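Format notes (please read before filing issues)

Several people have asked whether sequences and structure tokens are stored in separate files. They are not. Every record keeps both together, in the order shown below: the sequence lines, then the token lines. Line labels are part of the format and must not be stripped during preprocessing.
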Amino acid sequence: MIRLFLVDDHTLLRAGLRTLFQHPPELQVVGEAKNGAQLLAQLPSTPCEVVLLDLHIAGIQWPGYHPAFARRVS
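Then the structure lines:
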């Protein structure tokens, strides 16, 4: 099972993605956030393999990645 975490500030988009990913049995949405602060607060306690992230989300500086992601990946 591949666990997904959705991050986007548009509620309707997150709902659509959640619906889309309900049907493949090998995918499971385990968390959602509407901004970078919510993502970073929830990520340590929400095991996931994939973070589907809007790159223009508030609270995350790009290019690059936040140090919290490095801790999760390593």
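For reference, the curators noted about this record: The helical segments are 11-20, 36-42, 67-73. The chain has a mean pLDDT of 84.
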